[in-house]
Design brief:
Elements (H helix, E strand, L loop, with lengths): L1 E3 L4 H6 L3 E7 L4 H17 L4 E6 L4 H6 L7 E6 L2 E8 L4 H9 L4 H10 L3 E10 L3 H12 L4 E5 L12 E2 L9 E2 H15 L2 E4 L3 E5 L4 E4 L3 E10 L3 E3 L7 H4 L4 E2 L2 H4 L7 E5 L3 H10 L5 E5 L9 H8 L4 E4 L2 E9 L2 E8 L5 E6 L1 E4 L3 E3 L29 E3 L11 H20 L1
Parallel strand pairs: 1-3, 2-3, 6-7, 6-13, 7-10, 13-24, 15-22, 16-17, 16-22, 17-18
Antiparallel strand pairs: 2-4, 4-5, 8-9, 11-12, 12-13, 14-23, 19-20, 20-21
Helix pairs in contact: 2-4, 6-7, 6-12, 10-11
The chain binds flavin-adenine dinucleotide.
Flavin-adenine dinucleotide (FAD) binds next to helix 6, strand 7, helix 10 and helix 12.
């Protein structure tokens, strides 16, 4: 693996056969997460593909010329031309391998696959999920000198990193950007010395054996497991929703509101998330139409009052969406008036859906005890019904799902586990 600068690009990339180029930056957690994966793949594919790195901050001209706007970004080249899919953000090992495999012969792919040696690593505690709940458990365990690994399919931080502002996390006088709060939480846990395996594919979890397989070839074995996988947005399951997800329909205002400057959007939902995120969207969009099935919002009063006082906002109460489709550069939403049963079509630039959340438990099989809504039941010490398996945060059955309640769960689980391991 080699580091290049802009002046080397012509010779090292354009005149070479096969190249993968990593644009990285300093103080960039996803770049740090990528570095060991890039290095290990260079050792495997290095005979066929040249692995190069460019420090983006000092080679801005090259980054701009190639349209690279974020770090890390991996760009793949074959005989001087860009090939494959550009990868950016929390890049998974499997995504890089997919691109690399398409650049080499099928025989070579097979020989690489058969040469990969699975291995096992051992920890006292494995935490699945690194949102506030998992990160707090990781911090307490690390400070108690318990050998701990945190595993996440994405980057550390969970929902908080996608929340534009958090105003109710104690200790800060002013509202904090969610990404900053989650960054500080994960850096604090990292600095203590916890091991992070992030942006990985979690392919198998065996709760009885306390084994987790990541990226197909690494097995993590632990004495105790903490499930901290949080929740994912619910789908409406309305015609066109899956087809236009990411192409006009979004579930994340922090990620996508910026694309709707001076445009009109529809927000579906009426709980806290819908009302707070709609408020955020009004900073960009010229008009926000809320569609809500009931005759008033369920969100907290303060958030409702703020939203409803905003002249950019209008509300269709007692309406539900029935289908989504595209009409030229607009999205079309068919809505039904639940009182009259009449339908009509609304045109908009984009749609945001916030209709609740569901627990991320698909990987864990059927032996865990759940409540009626599919959340994991625990006792007060965060123990599930399975021996040495704990659950913390939003994935757990409880009344209030907030950052403060997730970190409280993480604290309780970690202190209990530390005592059990010590006894
Ligand atoms: C839009 C929105 C705004 C919010 N605003 C606020 C607010 O202002 N104040 C407040 O207190 N709370 C707020 N909340 C709630 C708060 O974000 C959550 O209560 C909190 O993040 C829960 O933390 P957690 O660690 O349990 O789960 P999460 O934050 O959901 O983190 C779960 C982690 O697990 C990972 N994961 C998922 N599946 C797997 C898997 N199979 N294997 C490995 N890893 C996996 C995810 O990638 C994620 O990193 C908001 C929530 C939303 C959705």
């Amino acid at each position: 693996m080699k580091e290049i600068v802009s002046a080397d690009f012509e010779k090292e990339v354009l005149q070479a056969d096969k190249v993968v180029l990593d644009f990285y930056s300093s103080e960039c957690p996803p770049c740090e997460a990528l570095a060991p994966k890039f290095e290990s793949l260079a050792a495997i594919y290095g005979d066929d593909v040249k692995f190069l790195k460019v420090f983006r901050q000092q080679n801005r001209d090259l980054a701009e010329r190639l349209g690279v706007h974020g770090s890390p970004t991996l760009v793949f080249f074959e005989k001087g031309r860009e090939v494959g899919i550009r990868l950016t953000g929390g890049i998974k090992r499997s995504e890089i391998m997919h691109n690399l495999n398409s650049m080499i012969s099928p025989d070579k792919v097979n020989s690489i696959k058969s040469s990969l040696k699975p291995f096992t690593s051992h920890y006292d505690v494995a935490i699945i999920g690194s949102g506030p709940g998992g990160l707090t458990a990781g911090l307490y365990l690390c400070q108690a000198r318990v050998n701990t690994v945190l595993i996440d399919t994405g980057l550390p931080g969970g929902h908080v990193s996608l929340t534009h502002q958090v105003s109710n996390y104690p200790g800060f006088i002013d509202p904090q950007p969610g990404y900053m709060l989650s960054h500080n939480m994960s850096e604090q846990t990292k600095k203590c010395g916890s091991v992070f395996k992030v942006a990985v594919d979690v392919t198998k979890v065996d709760l009885e054996q306390k084994e987790i397989v990541i990226d197909e070839y690494e097995t993590i074995r632990a004495k105790k497991l903490i499930i901290a996988t949080g929740t994912s947005p619910n789908y409406l399951n309305v015609t066109g929703e899956k087809e236009f997800k990411g192409k006009g329909i979004s579930y994340c205002a922090t990620c996508d509101a910026k694309y709707y400057v001076d445009k009109e959007v529809i927000v579906i939902g009426g709980g806290n998330s819908a009302v707070e995120e709609a408020e955020f969207i009004t900073k960009f969009a010229s008009k926000v139409t809320m569609i809500h099935q009931f005759d008033k919002f369920q969100a907290n009063k303060q958030a409702q009052e703020k939203l409803l006082a905003n002249p950019r906002v209008q509300v269709l109460y007692r309406h539900e969406p029935r289908s989504f489709s595209r009409m030229g550069d607009k999205m079309a939403v068919v809505v039904e008036d639940l009182a009259t049963k009449q339908t009509r079509e609304l045109l908009t630039d984009g749609i945001f859906i916030f209709v609740g959340l569901k627990p991320n438990i698909d990987l864990f099989g059927g032996n865990l005890e759940l409540d009626n809504w599919g959340y994991l039941k625990t006792d007060e010490d965060m123990r599930t019904n399975l021996k040495d398996v704990y659950a913390v945060g939003d994935v757990r059955s409880k009344k209030y799902r907030q950052i403060t309640t997730a970190i409280a769960d993480g604290t309780i689980a970690a202190i209990n586990i530390t005592r059990e391991l010590d006894s």
